[in-house]
Amino acid sequence: MTTATDRFGLAGPVIEISGLHKSFGERPVLKGIDLTVNAGDVVCVIGPSGSGKSTLLRCVNLLEQPTAGSIRLLGVEVTDPDVDIDQVRTHVGMVFQSFNLFPHKTVLGNLTLAQRKVLGRSEAEASAVAMRNLEHVGLADRAESYPAQLSGGQQQRVAIARSLSMDPAMMLFDEPTSALDPELVGDVLAVMRDLAESGMTMMVVTHEMAFAREVGDRVVFMDDGQIMEEGPAAQVIGAPTTERARVFLERVLHPTAVDDSQLGQTEPARPGDPDFRPPDGTGHVPLTVR
Fold first, then answer.
1. How many secondary structure helices (H) and strands (E) does the chain include?
2. DSSP element (H, E) containing 44
3. Which residue has the higher pLDDT, 44 or 2?
């Protein structure tokens, strides 16, 4: 059996995470993550808000400093205190929820700045690379526009083109469509799909279940700072083996469904509820039906 390679001819593990822990103060957010992403893989990370998905992604290129554990990128131990993390990051493209474009620079200026400052490319070379990537995301005609003149979906595609202009070996996406209007999501996902088909190694935190199922090679379901389930996309999304994953996916895929067993249940009224009343002397708190 041959080993899969990515668009750069790389083979084997590109991201190796072992025993990863991350705490903010006394609050543990990641609780022993083990995960490997091989060359050319598209790994989609799903799970409820607060499960640690974005923190995991930010730890990969040390935007968050892990509390314990190790992370290797392209064979380099990035959690080694002596690592040149800036050098390692030149091989890692990252796209955030917010677009993080410089508002005072044109689209072309946003794409060429890091190329010139970090990679040492000439203005002409950087512009040629930028235009090639703008063409790839369908925005070559907006090169001289400013971010404020673009829609959210267009700005996110510019952000993807900016990352691609650095010739990364892998791409990290942190819920890239969560800030977009529903009509704009498809254009961004189409660009990501093209990247996946080209062999780009990708780790994607997403709530877009259709994208994860159709494009992801593997899906990782996280909850409470742990990987609860991992496997082929069709299996994890279509037939999850853990009850927690099943409940989450049922709610995401069928958000209007109502569990009859929960109808008529009561719970204590909370401050801010219209019928909230402070406890009386006996400690009684009024109930509200939900």
1. 9, 12
2. strand 42-46
3. 44
pTM of the model: 0.83
Q: Enter the tokens of residue 192.
A: 């990501």
Per-residue pLDDT reduced to its tens digit, 92-125 = 999 988 888 999 999 999 999 999 999 999 999 9
Position 270 pLDDT exceeds 60: no
188 near 181, Cβ under 8 Å? Answer: no
For residues 237 and 250, is the Cβ–Cβ distance under 8 A? no
Residue 121 makes CB contacts below 8 A (sequence gap 6+) with 112, 115, 129
Q: Can you tell me the mean pLDDT for 154-181? A: 93
Q: How confident is the model at residue 8, as a pLDDT?
A: 53
| Ramachandran class of 203: left when φ > 0, alpha when ψ lies in -120 to 50, beta otherwise | beta
**How far, in Å, are 13, 21, 55, 65, 108 from residue 24 at the CA level?**
29, 10, 10, 10, 38
Specify the pLDDT at position 254: 82
The encoded tokens of residue 238 equal: 């279509």
What sign does the CA torsion over 203, 23, 178, 254 have?
Answer: positive
From start to end of 47-200, where are the E strands?
Answer: 68-73, 76-77, 92-95, 170-174
